[in-house]
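User: quick one
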Amino acid sequence: MSGALKIELGRRYRFSASHRLHSPHLSEEENCRVFGKCSNPYGHGHNYVLEVSMSGNVDPATGMIANLSDLDAFVERQVLDEFDCKSLNEDVPVFHDRVPTTENLCIEIFERLKTFPKAKLERIRVQETGNNSFEYAGDNPEGNQS
Amino acid sequence: MVLLTRKVEFAASHLYHNPNFSAEENRRIFGKCNNPHGHGHNYTLEVTVEGEPDPVTGMVLDLKELKEILEREVMQRMDHRHLNYEVVELAGQIPTCENIARVIWQLLEPKITQGRLHRVRLYESPDLFADCYRNGAGAAGLS
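Assistant: Done. Structure below.
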């Protein structure tokens, strides 16, 4: 029966960052209409929660899909070091020409984490506030079943 | 199909140690979780059952029955226990979230006869958890 089971490891991380939703392709008036107060020129911030789901075989010697210290160090290096206490618009190059909505943030974080060598990235979820969260699984059909 | 989730909490102690590793390897791989005296967590278990609501009762399964199954199969085995020494189903396994979630699935799956076990999610802390589900079924449930 165990062969038919799938195990995932879920880990949550936190980072705080500011952003401004503003598109250079829209007029000022359109920006205000589409993005509302999120388009305030000085930006605003969130305490983001990033949830990472990894799958893989549970190593019988360690009981683990992946060693947490490896996963934590990878996420720290790939995401938290560059995103925590930063302005997403100014400090993260991909958002120089892409609106840093949490949808786009999910896609960027997924791309940065999918190369984790010790397990398979199933999906990520980013909570922007206690009331908004976003999920992305790339082209992984099983990851999208969450 | 409707998913129903029940949550229970239990407190237990454990340590990570593989007797086939040297003391130095155990420390390197498991870090402070290798402390020989163990340590503990407040575990939160979310059990999700799938099924169609019964046309008469409107229930996928009777929550009282699920509560009793969880009490018997999980709480009595694991609450206020040392997972390495007192849970026979975990004997010979490192009691990580991944392994405990799988053992809980194996204990619950045959006992749930109304509806079908869909997912077991076990939180060791608010930031660390494991999901166990049928391959191909997806991990949907409460988050």
